[in-house]
Hints:
- The protein has seven helices and six strands, in the order E-H-E-H-H-E-E-H-H-E-H-E-H.
- The chain is of the alpha/beta class.
- The chain has one domain: Flavin prenyltransferase-like (Rossmann fold, 3-Layer(aba) Sandwich).
- A six-stranded parallel β-sheet has the order 3-2-1-4-5-6, sandwiched between helices.
- Helix 4 packs across helix 6 (141-152).
- The chain is globular, with a radius of gyration of 16 Å.
Amino acid sequence: MIQQKWVVGITGASGSIYGVRLVQELLRAGHFVHLMITEAGWQVFQDELDWDTQDREALLREKLQQDFPGELQYWGLRDFGCPAASGSYRCDGMIVVPCSMGTLSGLAQGASGNLLERVADVMLKEGRRLVLVPRETPLNAIHLENMLKLSRLGVKILPAMPGYYQKPQTMDDLINFVVGKALDALDVPHTLFRRWGE
């Protein structure tokens, strides 16, 4: 299989396990991942996963890379030397999972206020795949208008809504369903859940 290059952003919305599992699956499949995590995203790692984030590089090696064949490159949000910040760099696309409403708003306005927003803007201007996995409820009109604006620009909006037809038995089953749908949006093969009719 040809190694693909993906950009993954993890923001401060609840549901950081979705981003973690997605990165693990991309690395398990042998892909290259450029990873960006917002400060709020690091805070959610502490709050939801009980991770000690003092040594961030060591944490990423321990929790994400493990023995997977893929390659992981972590980028700070001020490191605009990241190759994916340029339209001349070829990559297969980007996913922000989970995507906070603050990040979604920045993307809808073309803010490019940090590396994650800049790379997403590159995906838009170059016509590359961009998938956002918002995790917020309830949604107000501003959230919905921002999602509609991005959808009209070709962004795939994939809310973190697990399905139940496969009769999930564990929390992992629910997580894997959402991550599997995200991988489907990237056209990355997986076996994380049983499909309808299988």
